[in-house]
Structures are given as C-alpha cells and as structure tokens.
Design brief:
By secondary structure, the protein is α/β, with parallel strands linked by helices. The chain contains six helices and five strands.
Length: 166
C-alpha cells in the first residue's frame, strides 16, 4: 500500500516530481503518482484528497505552479502532512508559486520546500514517516552519512590537486 501520494497539476511538473519519487524509492517507500488539476477538474481533485487517507497515504507531496492551489487544498482536506513543491514559472520565476504555497492561513499548514525542490520533498516525507518506523529512520541516517562522505571526498580531491587546479 502506498504511503505517499505525489500529485501535480500538469505533466510539465514531472521532472521535478520525479526527483521526489526517486528519493522515496531510495528509501524503499511506496508511493502513488497522479496528475490532477485542482482548477480544471475540481471534482476529481476533491475525490483524491478525500480518499487519500483511506488509501493509506501518510503524507502527500503536491507540486504546483503559478496560483499553486493544489498543495493548500490538499492540506485543507487531508488530515496528515502535506509537502508543497513550488514550481519554477516563466513569468515570476516561481516566486508566485512559493508565495501561494507558503502563505497558508492559520490551521492549514503546508510544509514547503524550495522552488523545484522535488528531492527535498521526498527526503522530508521520508523523515516524517521515519518518526514511527525505526528501519526507515536507519535509512535516513545512512543517507545523511552518505552526504557527509560525499563532501569529505570532494574536499580530499580539492586538497590533492590544490585550489588553483580545481
């Protein structure tokens, strides 16, 4: 059973949302990915948000651009955490999306990652789920160790070749 729902308003969001899915796969977390427009098919959207809990979702990752209502509306209906990913837009560079997602009214919080922050949304979902899953918590800790080792390897290469050759 999928533990995370990934929803986006358009297939143009797929490159960013795929990064969230990739991180969930890295941690062994099942997910379901769907394209739904909150504006163009509100009845389909409401059904999705209303049934997400009964489908076993513990977290929803919702990506949206421009007016970016999808994450906030998910949070208004779904009783568990929603992570919003603001999409980069050509008109305002994603600031419109960011403001739409992060400026939610009191009582309807949406955890918001950076513009096009798909990978961080997947990691945050894993961390949320890890609060009640010791095996997943170990995977999250191992991932953090991998990141540390990557930085150490980069620094070692820098020290080997010198600053000017890098």
């Amino acid at each position: 059973m999928a533990k995370v729902g990934i929803v986006m308003g358009s297939d143009s969001d797929m490159p960013v949302m795929r990064k969230a899915a990739d991180m969930l796969e890295k941690f062994g977390i099942e997910y379901e990915m769907t394209i739904i427009s909150a504006h163009r098919e509100p009845d389909v959207f409401f059904e999705y948000a209303k049934t997400a809990e009964s489908k076993g979702f513990k977290v929803i990752i919702a990506g949206a651009g421009m007016a970016a209502h999808l994450p906030g509306m998910c949070a208004a209906i779904f009783p568990m955490p929603v992570i919003g990913i603001p999409m980069h837009t050509t008109s305002l560079g994603g600031r419109d999306s960011l403001y739409s997602i992060v400026q939610m009214p009191t009582g309807i919080p949406v955890a918001t990652v950076a513009i096009n922050g798909g990978a961080n949304a997947g990691i945050l979902a894993a961390k949320i789920l890890a609060t009640s899953d010791p095996k997943l918590l170990e995977k999250v800790k191992a991932y953090a160790q991998e990141l540390k080792e990557q930085v150490e390897q980069k620094d070692a290469r820098l020290q080997e070749v010198g600053y000017k050759a890098y």
